[in-house]
Design goal:
The chain is α/β, with parallel strands linked by helices. Helix content is 30%, strand content 18%.
């Protein structure tokens, strides 16, 4: 498959043409001020690995997603395209809740999560070999494309599994705060709402001290920084791999993200 390489504000990202599984059905975009954009960033539990079930096949005309080809489409799972195993994520149920809250608004999801990516790859020029991508550069470039049509209203973040290791967990808090500050600086939005979710709490795979450090970092950064919210993963359950949240849990998680987001902006 040939790729187009698009340069935007000094960044590049690959736009596949065509993209298998993406709908080419034209969608009508609202006025720019009524098109609320949300950047989806992090690793696989943000990209979503939930099994696609019937509800995820039914599109909401007011929830769109930016495809790998840089075009808007109805947000039908999988929204992400980081790996072939991409499935249901938490963003759809998040967007449904926000769309219900704001009946005159359309939600535009910007998929940018990269399964397996450590926070060190979320820096300018950072490279992630698993997905053959530049997580930070690609996320910024995709957001810039989306912002031609709408207004960036927030960032959803779920990541930390890859950094819950010796030699990485110790620096995670500093790196996370730096990342969030860079996002806000990049978009000239010092109070841009950011919602981050807790790592999975799966009894079959208890946390070690390094996962505990990452969890503590999430809480600390959300407490220290303005307009940053932390969402608990209490009671959520995994797929059989005991790594990724299952579809039911992702629906719940997305609603929790939405509840936290609405508290930030109300």
């Amino acid at each position: 498959m040939k790729n187009l390489i698009i340069g935007i504000m000094g960044s590049v990202f690959s736009l596949g043409v065509p993209v298998e599984g993406e709908t080419s059905t034209p969608v009508d975009l609202p006025n720019k001020e009524n098109f609320y954009l949300v950047l989806l960033a992090g690793q696989s539990n943000m990209a979503g690995r939930g099994i696609i079930e019937e509800p995820e096949k039914l599109p909401n005309p007011r929830v769109l997603a930016l495809g790998e080809d840089g075009k808007w489409r109805l947000a039908v799972a999988p929204i992400h395209f980081d790996k072939k195993v991409a499935g249901v994520g938490l963003a759809s149920s998040f967007a449904e809740e926000i769309a219900e809250k704001y009946p005159n608004v359309t939600i535009g999801l910007i998929p940018a999560a990269c399964g397996g990516s450590g926070i060190s790859t979320w820096k300018p020029g950072g490279y992630h070999s698993q997905t053959k991508s530049h997580p930070w550069d690609d996320a910024i470039a995709r957001a810039r494309v989306a912002m031609n049509n709408g207004v960036l209203k927030g960032i959803l973040w779920h990541q930390g599994e890859s950094d819950g290791k010796p030699g990485l967990a110790e620096a995670y808090e500093e790196n996370l705060q730096d990342l969030f500050q860079r996002f806000r600086t990049e978009f000239n939005a010092p109070e841009l709402p950011i919602v981050l979710g807790q790592l999975g709490q799966f009894p079959a795979k208890p946390w070690d001290k390094y996962r505990e450090q990452v969890n503590a970092a999430h809480i600390a950064v959300s407490t220290r920084m303005e307009k940053v919210a932390f969402v608990t993963s209490d009671g959520l359950t995994p797929n059989s791999d005991i790594v990724h949240f299952d579809t039911r849990s992702l629906r719940i998680f997305g609603k929790r993200y939405a509840e936290a987001y609405l508290k930030l902006v109300d």
